[in-house]
Amino acid sequence: MIEFYEVSKTYLNGVTALRDVTITIAKGEFVFVVGLSGAGKSTLARLVYREELPTKGYVFVNGVNLARLKPRAVPYLRRNIGVVFQDFKLLPRKTAYENVAFALRVTGASPREIARRVPACLELVGLGGKGDAYPDELSGGEQQRTALARAIANHPLVLVADEPTGNLDPTTSWDIVRLLLEVNQRGTTVLMATHAKHIVDAVRRRVITLDKGLVVSDKLRGGYGDGGERAWAQGLSASLSARP
Description:
Elements: E1 2-10, E2 16-25, E3 30-34, H1 41-48, E4 56-61, E5 64-65, H2 74-78, E6 81-85, H3 96-105, H4 111-124, H5 140-152, E7 158-162, H6 170-185, E8 189-193, H7 197-203, E9 206-211, E10 214-219, H8 229-241
Parallel strand pairs: 3-8, 3-9, 6-7, 7-8
Antiparallel strand pairs: 1-2, 1-4, 4-5, 9-10
Helix pairs in contact: 3-4, 3-5, 4-5, 5-6
């Protein structure tokens, strides 16, 4: 489903975010990607939905080599990849219903299909009565639920969640994770980049740990930092010692 082969990513400013990453994520898996800030989590996520291209190596999603996709084919790829961001990225002048409908409209869905699927998505995430609300009328948790409804509107094969609970309180964070687990149970592959140790430790799904762009641990039913304790501790120590 998702395959990285010796993938490295170096940005124009010289920062290398990923180094020789080789991982395979099977269809239907739920995978946490963890690590300190700057470990490469968001870069890995962006490579999956082709926001970035690798400097070296290959990324495949559902058998497609993303580097060989022509620009006009990228929107078609993203029909099969839902994305949930930490800062929601909702359209402020559109209601919750309109935000979800927009994701369907740009893929060519018919008005009848939109009228059928949008309420179903909002109901699934617990916003059945909030379709007419604008983002600034919703709580942070409700905005993230709207973003999740938008991400699953096209029944994606893959859902990428980049720090989806980063701006939420613990109780609301758990609500979002439960929804992600439910989406996963319906057959969608979920890749979640996160700092939320309590969630990772409690859910006990596959955990890929990054440190300075390297995969230092890959545990089938891991916890936060499992197997990468030495690199994790060294990275944390370096981070703390660098503070004034």
